[in-house]
UniProtKB/TrEMBL annotation:
Location of region: Disordered: 86-105
UniProt feature coiled coil, ranges: 44-78
Keywords tagged on the record: Coiled coil
InterPro entries hit by this protein: Porin_dom_sf (IPR023614)
UniProt keyword Coiled coil, yes or no: yes
SUPFAM superfamilies: Porins
Keyword Coiled coil: yes
Name listed for the protein in its UniProt record: Porin
Length: 459
């Protein structure tokens, strides 16, 4: 399942950002005054007084911004309703400012908050229009409850593909179910079923939070979005703009590996083996860590690392482990947004497993898998309350690079590298309602080229 939410946004408030811009404007005005003074002979005393006034105003704004930054952290960790709805708020450095999720709730002051999102997609292969499909991709309803200003829970129930039954492709699942407690304003403990802090999409995947009708390939097939595990973790922030995560959670289970040709394991190795909190085997656990820097307005850089036992103590799988690492960056100069991500994973200790269980099979366990993408978007076209944001994304990935332990003559070829160019646009009726259209070109796989249309909303 290539499905799926988010952590609390502890960035400075919009008012803080406005004050920063105001401070910058005052600074530029002061600079202009100094330059003007060098080129004219106006009264020196009056000019000196004006400069002193501007300096005082600039310092006052700096002090106010500094104080508001402190308040932003405190408010984000103390407001019960907002924290109960953290699962739908885009994280600092989240996918796009287009997607400023605004979770709804009950009456003001109520400890109970409701939120959710939905998306529909239509795809029409250009080489085989008869294969066109339309799908209610997913509908999600979430709720949060604040037990106290410092302790809260959040949960999400998701329905995929419209109908879930033994004869239908749909699924019903809990995407998140956790309790969070603020140890102090900059440190939170989370325990339960929660999302891994990997990349951009895994934690911020509401329809208005990413470009394209469908989620990108790298963050669904290399990073297994939506990737959630059972366990406990810490989240921290600093006034200098750093965010960090660390924790101990359940690991994927290689006992779920399907060696058949074209299986989900062939397409997405971790997607087919992560356990989603469903009777999860827990002899082997994963240690993870993530670090992000948001201290420069419009810039986010970060990365994360995961490692753990995937053999789960099962006969024939002893010693098997995995590692996954990713790096990401986003820069937002004015109306532009540039984003990049690279991820690489590997399995170790699998030679004996392949030799005894999967030799001669089409899809043994690969040594490595990985991919990367570059994306650019323009968010400057606004008229009548609507916003049009064109974008383009190029990505490449390979889900099977090398196989250990397979006897000579039985080794299957590496999986082909997928290269896809996606270009299109998002039309925002409001920040929470979006119409999407894009066209995808798969290099060397023309049968996959397709026109895609979609609608999404979130609340």
């Amino acid at each position: 399942m290539y499905a799926q939410h988010t952590h609390t946004d502890l960035r400075p408030s919009s008012m803080t950002c406005k004050l920063r811009r105001g401070a910058l404007a005052v600074a530029l005005a002061a600079y202009g005054t100094f330059a003007w003074a060098d080129e004219t002979n106006h009264d020196g005393a009056a000019l000196s007084l004006e400069v002193q006034t501007l300096r005082a105003e600039l310092q006052a704004l700096r002090d106010e911004v500094r104080e508001l930054r402190k308040q932003a952290v405190a408010e984000a960790t103390a407001a019960p309703s907002a924290k109960a709805a953290a699962a739908v708020q885009a994280p600092a450095g989240g996918e796009s400012n287009d997607a400023a999720s605004m979770p709804g709730g009950g009456q003001q002051g109520s400890p109970l908050t409701l939120f959710g999102y939905g998306e529909l997609g239509y795809t029409r292969p250009t080489r085989d229009p008869s294969a066109a499909t339309a799908n209610l991709t997913r509908g999600v309803l979430g709720w949060g409850y604040a037990f106290s200003p410092d302790t809260r829970m959040a949960a999400e129930l998701e329905l995929e593909s419209g109908v879930a039954s033994s004869s239908d492709a749909g699924e019903i699942e809990l995407e998140q179910f956790y309790v969070a407690h603020d140890i102090n304003p900059g440190l939170t403990l989370k325990t339960g079923l929660f999302l891994m802090p990997a990349g951009y999409l895994n934690q911020s995947h509401e329809p208005a939070a990413y470009y394209g009708v469908f989620r990108n390939e790298v963050e669904t097939r290399v990073i297994p979005s939506t990737w959630r595990e059972l366990g406990a973790g810490l989240e921290g922030t600093t006034e200098s703009g750093w965010r960090w995560n660390a924790g101990l959670v359940t690991s994927p289970d290689l006992g779920k590996w399907d060696p058949a040709a074209g299986s989900e394991c062939a397409l997405a190795p971790l997607q087919c083996t992560h356990q989603e909190g469903s009777q999860a085997k827990a002899k082997g656990l994963t240690v993870y860590g993530a670090l992000n820097y948001d201290g420069v307005l419009g810039l986010n850089v970060g990365g994360s690392l995961y490692t753990g036992d995937v053999g789960q103590g099962q006969a024939g799988f002893a010693g098997a482990r995995y590692q996954l690492g990713e790096l990401h960056a986003r820069w937002e100069p004015g109306p532009w947004q540039f984003q990049a991500l690279a991820a690489y994973g590997r399995f170790t200790g699998v030679a004996a497993i392949n030799a005894t269980l999967f030799a001669g099979q089409p899809t043994p366990i690969p040594d490595g898998f990985g991919g990367a993408y570059l994306q650019a978007a323009y968010r400057g076209w606004n008229a009548g309350g609507y916003r049009l944001s064109p974008f383009a994304r190029y990505e490449f990935l390979n889900t099977a690079r090398g196989y250990s332990g397979i006897p000579q003559g039985l080794t299957p070829p590496d999986a082909p590298t997928t290269r896809v160019l996606t270009s299109g646009a998002s039309l925002f009726l409001t920040p929470q309602v979006v119409f999407k259209a894009d066209y995808q070109v798969f290099r060397g796989q023309r049968e996959r080229n397709a026109l895609n249309l979609g609608v999404g909303f979130q609340f």
